[in-house]
Fold:
Amino acid sequence: MILPAISYHLLIDKQTLFWVKKQPQKNYCGLTTILFNINEIIKMSIHHIAVSNKYARNQRIKRQRIVWGHCLFSCLLFLLFLPSPVFSYDSSSADYKKYINRLEKQFSQYGWTDVKPGTISWEYYRTTKNKNPLIFTTFGNSKGNCVLFLGCVHGDELPTVYLMFKLAHYVKDNPALFKDKCIVIAPIVNPDGFLATPPTRVNASGVDLNRNFPTKDWQASAIRKWVAKGGKKRYSPGAKPGSEQETQFQLALIKRFKPQKILSVHSPLNFFDYDGPSSDLNSFEHWLEKISKETNHPWKKFGYYPGSLGNYAGHERNIFTLTLELPSSDPRHGNMYFQKFQPSILKFINLPIVGSLPNIKR
Ligand SMILES: [Zn+2]
Structure:
């Protein structure tokens, strides 16, 4: 009974056959070897169970891998075709076309007939609460020398939009400007506020986007300071830091392009203001003083708020962050402001940054 059992076992297990070939001289018929055989059968049975278990485990792992592969593939297909607010870059989408049409209509109402939003190649990956795409465009691809322009962070600061679109046209027509650098323009950070009737400073959720950045002092001070100053709706920092799509949009631009310089255009406070960097401060103040004289536009150190861009980018990340406050929010003055500030904007693009590099890992 032992030998047939062994034969049967040998037939079904390649590894055991191998063992027999290696030891052909063994005599299984002697009385003294019966105990040995029993011992070997037990060992082989255990081995067989182990091999069978291993085989079953491998099959299980294979099945799991196939299932996970299918899941991953389905998820990728899902993300590719689902119009999500984060992954929907499609310049032929209905949302995008609707948005560009609305902008063109709005621009003609403001008399901005020389800027054509549809003629610039825009990218977008996020939409706002009102389904407006958060667009930006990039010129040049030099890494390490990027400048970021932000317009219309506050939706009712109308000429800032004209300035940014006009700048996009100008840069597009003058490729020498971005030969050795990259220029990123996000002309309307707050489209819901810009397209509201009447336009509003805050976004569709009632949040001031220049108080919503996740700065270190946000949790401790943003809401407390806002309430202490009267809790005006215009300055609401939101329920939590970075809660708004528009804030996430700006954070993503900073993270992706790692700009050395940022120019954010606002109105109507009528001055230049800057934050950061912490090194080589004197040369920036010198530069700003010169620009201020040339443009006949005052500059001041305005300070920063919990959740403001100046705090997040300039103070905390060492990025030279310049704020241009236009003299008024009257959309009819857009072209006049572009003529006035264009030379200083071009100088800002070419301004070399010395000293320590921005810290944009966080
Ligand atoms: Zn503003």
